[in-house]
Amino acid sequence: MLPFLTQARAPLTRDVLAVNEFGDSSVVSIPSERALTVYVDKRELVTLMTLGANPELLVLGFLRNQRLVQHAPEVESITVDWDVGAAAVKTRGGIADLEAKTSKRVVTTGCGQGSVFGDMMDEVDSIRLPDAVITQAQLYGITNAIRLQETTYKSSGSVHGCALFRVTPQGPEMLIFVEDVGRHNAIDTIAGWMWMQDASNMTSADKVFYTTGRLTSEMVIKSAQMGVPIVVSRSGITQMGHEVAQRLGLCTVGRATNKHFLCYSGAHRLVLQPELAGSRLRSVA
After folding, report:
1. What DSSP assignment string belongs to 99-165?
2. Is the pTM of the predicted complex or chain greater than 0.70?
3. For 186, phi and psi rounded to 5 degrees?
4. Which residues of 41-94 form beta strands (DSSP E)?
5. Which of the four pLDDT bands, split at 50, 70 and 90, describes residue 119?
6. Residue 52: which of 31, 69, 74 has the closest Cα?
7. Vertex 221, ends 213 and 179: CA angle to 5°?
C-alpha cells in the first residue's frame, strides 16, 4: 500500500521591490525559500530548504535516495504543515538503526540541501542499470522541450530544474518537471514521484533524467539509485561525477544547449546522428 501524502503546496514566488542600474524601481518576482524540518516517527531528522512545490514527494524521495527506506509501502504517511514548517513521516514498522544510518553526515556541493547521510559510495557497485540508448534526435527533443517549458526560473531566476522523460520512437515525453532552490531537492522530488506511480508502468529502461545543475557524484549516484541510466545536463560534470558514471556505465551528457552537447561517459548508450548538428563553424584566419 502506498503512503498517504498531504498536498501542502506552497506559493513558489513572492513579489519584492527592486532598483535597477538606472535607479528605477519596479516590482519583481523572487523564489520563495522556506525551511522544512523532517521528523521520522517523531524524531527530528533533517531540515531541508525548499520552494515547497511538492514537499511530500521531496521528503519521500529524500528518504529513498538516502537509503533510509527501501520501498514506498514502508512509509504510512507524510503530513506537511507549513504553519510550523514541519513534515511528519510515519512509518509502518520504524527504520532499523536510524541513529547509526544518520550518524555520518557528508557535506555536499549541492545548494538547498547541504548534507547527505552515510557513505555516498555505499552500494554503488551493486547497482545494475538497464540497457538503454538515446538517439541524438531524441536528445535534441529533450533540450527543446526544456527550452519551451514554462518555469519559475524564467520569471524569477535563482532555482534549479529537473525533469524525467520517457523516450519513445515518436520522441521524448516529459513525465514530470520540478524546480527547487537546489538540484538535490528537485531530483529527490522526482524520486518520490516515481515511487508513487504504478510500478508496472514505471520501468526505468526508457527514462532519461534532465537537470539544469552540474553532474556531481551525488547527482550521478541518485540517478543510478533511481535506475535511470542516462542523465542530461545543461551544465558540466565534476571529476568525481565522471569517475562514478564510468564505474556504473551511466551515460552523462553535459553542456546540452541548442544542438551542442558533450558526452562525458557511457557513449555506447548514445546513437550519434552528426548530420543533425548542422554545419561546423570554421574559424577565419
Report:
1. HHHTS-EEE-S-SS--EEES-TTTTGGG--PPP--EEHHHHHHHHHHHHHS--HHHHH---EEEEEE
2. yes
3. -65, -45
4. 43-50, 75-81, 86-91
5. low
6. 31
7. 35
